[in-house]
Amino acid sequence: xxxxxxxxxxxxxxxxxxxxxxxxxxxxxxxxxxVAVAVDYHGVFLWNLEAPSPVPVRLAMDGGYARxxxxxxxxxxxxxxxxxxxxxxxxxxxxxx
Length: 97
Hints:
mainly beta, 3-stranded antiparallel sheet
């Protein structure tokens, strides 16, 4: 199964597709400009929703696959998640993203 996210926003219905697998968790950034999805055995994908045709960026998975627990920081610049090994990973978004 392809991980598929669909919602109605200001610009109509948007559909995002990632790797095959079960969607474990989903989180929107506080400003609503990005969405992150944890897909079973495939990692965490991040989309810039301001792009005309958003393309997922697969985040580095040093130390294990994502298990969920996605959480953006209050300023939206960092994203944290739980790994299958029981650890936590943090990704810091570049100011240009």
